[in-house]
Amino acid sequence: MKFEKSELILNPDGSIYHLNLFPEDISDTIITVGDPDRVSDVSQYFDHIELKKGKREFHTHTGTLNGKRLTVISTGIGTDNIDIVLNELDALANIDFGTREIKKNRIRFEIVRIGTSGAIQPAIPIDSFLLSKYGIGFDGLLHFYKSKSIQHTKFSESLMQYLEWEDELFRPYVIKYNQNLADKISKNRIRLGVTVTNSGFYGPQGRQLRLEPKDGRFLSKLTAFKFENLRITNLEMETAGIYGLARMLGHRAISLNCVLANRITGEFSKNPHKAVDKLIRLTLERIISS
């Protein structure tokens, strides 16, 4: 199969369209962050930085730490950007830009998201760390792909019935993390959770400023919901998309969340930069020692 110029879009210099990267610019271990400024917060701990590139909200640093080559890339906010980043990273590794055909020998990434999040269970402390065992997508992204075989449909059906989900809304999709990668990175300081990936920050997460949410009990419903022995622990905007696309493309992915807010207690971190920095250092420590 040969990809047309309108489907696999390259810049005049031959780099991939949005990320502005060449295949040799990235490693097999990818750290994703939302905020472009957080890229340097991660790469400051590298022993050597070989590459710095940026286009739009997509900033990339590649370097080495303790002899291990790492790439950190910003995705911006939301699964619309995740769709771009995951597809273009995979294209860099697994499509020959010269022939525009899929390579015979596939490369598998290990993808670790370092992000921020808001807890919806009162017992989850501010500044704590959470690894998403499941991502629940309220954004609709995976429904544009042949993805049903990787979805936890019983989980999503139970949630839809509980929420009395309306036809005009996208059906939630539920995707599990890669346990092998989680076992390499996780340790006692990181709890497991179930993460909802929302399509926005305000109404879709039950926040109200001047606009009134359609369902004023949405947040409390999510907090009270239980599937088997699982409760929803936190809300953010990328995890489910990363899990779904990574799994379909054959990559391993996990999402690590620094809990900066607790929506139930109304608390917010007094020093969010310090909390996120602790998670960055812990993640890098686990990556290079695994």
Structural commentary:
Helix content is 27%, strand content 29%. Strand 2 (48-55) and strand 3 form a beta hairpin. With 290 residues, it is α/β, with parallel strands linked by helices. The model has no long low-confidence stretch (mean pLDDT 95). Strands 7-13-10-8-14 form a 5-stranded mixed barrel. Strands 5-6 form a two-stranded antiparallel sheet. Strands 11-12 form a two-stranded antiparallel ribbon. The longest helix has 18 residues, at 272-289.
Key features?
290 residues; alpha/beta; five-stranded mixed beta barrel; 27% helix; globular
Strand content: 25-35%
Structural class: alpha/beta
Provide the succession of SSEs: EHEEEHEEEEHEHEHEEEHEEH
Radius of gyration computed on alpha carbons:
19 Å
Shape: globular
**Distance separating the two termini:** 37 Å
How many E strands? 15
Give a concise summary.
This protein is α/β, with parallel strands linked by helices. The chain has seven helices and 15 strands. 27% of the residues lie in helices and 29% in strands.
